[in-house]
Request: fold
Amino acid sequence: MMFQIQEEKEKDFILNQLSQSLDTFGEVKLSTDNNSRSARYVKVTPSVNIEKLKQLFLDHWLILQADLLVCITGSTEKERVEYWEKLFYETFFKDAHTTVAITNGIQDQLTKALGNAMKFRWNQPSCKSSLLGIPFWHQIYNKDQLVGTMNEGKYPATYTKLRENEITDGDEMPLAENHEYYVMLDAKNCSKSYETRVGIISALRENIANTWVPEFWTERTGLKTVPSLHLVIGGDVVTLMEVNALLQNHQIVALVNCRGATGLLCMALNKLRNSNLQSLDKEFVEAVVTKQGSWLTGVSQQSIIIDYFMKILDKSDLVHIIDPDHFKEDFYSLVIKLHGKTESLVHSLRQLYHQFS
Reply:
């Protein structure tokens, strides 16, 4: 009975307050080979009201207030999944009491690593962390299974995902595993869909970090915001596009210096900073992309990559580099640098992050 009342309140809010989806919302049961878990979901348009979306999270989906908010994008290789899984668990879920992590919500090797790390956390009774995916609606495989009836949504929907050895049609991919919440962005007709999603994620990050602050956090640290960061790992041309969009939105970005787009960016950034130049000439960037990034994309895309490189380097003051060999240390050092004001506050932050280890 209590769950029915909760569902009715959620429906009423989505239909009359959020005013987004008339039939694509509810609860979905994600079935995999190893487990079955339920998640809340809603389809929204680029015009979604961020404050109302946060209200859905807090009042109806009951996502707990975070002491760490991290937005993760990029990609990695299959053979690196276990490596990142361990680092994610140690960094985001073992020490931090309540982490909210935001991803693209689509199953790839990076979201798989993060989901597996979160699965370990679920086995601990103190787990209060959450994974929120924001996938594009048009990229979701088997999305018809998520469409319910008008004004009723679907409670529950049963979602069948692809196995890893199955090939998808076109660009469609299954929902990421081990996520508890999905905000599905219907932006197929949007000319700049990736930039639009980055804008929504950036606005969400700022809103949650600035207004969704647990009392204990303010009491122990004196901060009135929750530490938050955009973390970019590896990736390809799309990743460059997303990094550029984040920087144009004046977001601080942490790049992990590993194989992929972020590795090339780190190479160029280190050259820029070590040379004490205000900017790098285009010829150097072209050489980096041609010699080091030939595997990243076809020759026809090199001019696009170079253009993104130049735009990103122009905003280099907003970019920080994380060494994957010192991932946890670099991550928290950066968090403290961005949010800590005094030595006593740094000490409080270190105590807070490590008291749960």
